[in-house]
Amino acid sequence: MAAAAAAMATATSATAAPPLRIRDAARRNRRRGHVRCAVASGAAEAPAAPGARVSADCVVVGGGISGLCTAQALATKHGVGDVLVTEARARPGGNITTAERAGEGYLWEEGPNSFQPSDPVLTMAVDSGLKDDLVFGDPNAPRFVLWEGKLRPVPSKPGDLPFFDLMSIPGKLRAGLGALGVRPPPPGREESVEDFVRRNLGAEVFERLIEPFCSGVYAGDPSKLSMKAAFGKVWRLEDTGGSIIGGTIKTIQERGKNPKPPRDPRLPTPKGQTVASFRKGLTMLPDAITSRLGSKVKLSWKLTSITKSDNKGYALVYETPEGVVSVQAKTVVMTIPSYVASDILRPLSSDAADALSIFYYPPVAAVTVSYPKEAIRKECLIDGELQGFGQLHPRSQRVETLGTIYSSSLFPNRAPAGRVLLLNYIGGSTNTGIVSKTESELVEAVDRDLRKMLINPRAVDPLVLGVRVWPQAIPQFLIGHLDHLEAAKSALGKGGYDGLFLGGNYVAGVALGRCVEGAYESASQISDYLTKYAYK
């Protein structure tokens, strides 16, 4: 049970928040976020002349974190420097958005909130010159789940299992036996997260731990999410070892036989299981990469068409502030959302476009509020302070908000003294009606929920810092996701579109860390292709 719960909880903390389009609550005019065909940019250079033709070894379509990291990985790991990153919006970083009230002491995230400090992410940060700007959360910070009106701590290590009150003794015994393999066998079909967890670990683990974690990671419905696609590491434990514990033991044995290469001595060593960010927020990473790439990043470049060239490369046509620009590329990687890639690729392959159009992105809103410290219920304070990562709310507890991150407790300098900063998520695949709510209605829903378990019912109204709605927030890794992704890749291959790659969070995973790891994987594939094929 500890292996499964810890692995899936880690995915939650690493994922941080869904990518959301931000809006300042002080703005009177209500706006809704819209994903544009991303092609990205960042640093100043002489503008391209109308009708200009540009060439590159690789064009990265999309200037979010996946695209920027792919370009940097090509340069730092593979020596491929002839890269162009194009972004349709006017700023790089995609949905990473850090907001600040200068002079008031507030700093908050309105897209992803943090990341798990894996070595690939730390490498990207160090290569971007941000080693000294890294900040790490307290590895002992508790995480809470709302159950029967009380915020209950989640076990963070095996030693916590006998003592935490989120589960009953029979529920713990059922989970332990199931993890050892005393449970029904796999059904021989792709299982949902709910089916897998109920079968292996029992109803209590699912209802009180995994269901709220699915809300935190995907804002999704665990009865529809694919265990294999959404939580592949845990799924593989049973698949390779016959049970979760058996798979864990086998994984440890395999690591002993195949030790990792020496760790990069430049990388900092986080203390324990934690999450990380940067001194001035997550936006420091895309900004730093953009600065290093310089004129290779193009903002406000909207891709209008892509065609296969006679010389095995690709011709891309962009609408830019300077006019129409044509780009000739030996390779292309699409790191934009799948539904945007579907529209662009349809003239090349209707089969690939159809497969990409299947992926579902539900709406999510991020509501950032601040209360005075005395507004926190006394029973929720630890040593007189609000401590912890945050809290999650199972759908069965009749609370609309998916979860709350204790931003001012997680990282330093997020709120002024005497104030707490809370980032709340609401919506997801089980509550799509949020797109029809006003900003004030979203704030009222969050405040009403918080007063049920965290905030004193008679506390003053919160200071509203931001309300952001993303109509298409997080790709859902539903049953069949991996098959649809493979169908899209296969269709491109059968169509003769070698050198055209798919990337981004619907490919690599929704956590920020997985996007970075996926960028390194994409960069390796692109480099191999350029080496083996492009120059023959």
Describe this structure in words.
This protein starts with a helix and ends with a helix. A hairpin with a 5-residue loop joins strand 10 (302-308) and strand 11 (314-320). By secondary structure, the chain is α/β, with parallel strands linked by helices. Helix 2 packs across helix 10, helix 2 crosses helix 17 (512-534) and helix 8 packs across helix 9 (244-257). 35% of the residues lie in helices and 19% in strands. It has helices at residues 2-15, 65-78, 119-127, 169-180, 193-201, 203-218, 227-230, 232-241, 244-257, 284-293, 338-345, 350-357, 407-410, 439-450, 481-494, 505-508, 512-534; strands at residues 53-61, 83-86, 98-101, 106-109, 134-136, 143-147, 150-153, 276-278, 297-298, 302-308, 314-320, 323-334, 364-372, 390-392, 401-406, 419-427, 463-470, 500-502. The chain has three domains: 54-94 and 284-359 and 477-535, FAD/NAD(P)-binding domain (3-Layer(bba) Sandwich); 114-118 and 126-141 and 362-470, Protoporphyrinogen oxidase, mitochondrial, domain 2 (Polyamine Oxidase, Chain A, domain 2); 169-257, protoporphyrinogen ix oxidase, domain 3, CATH 1.10.3110.10.
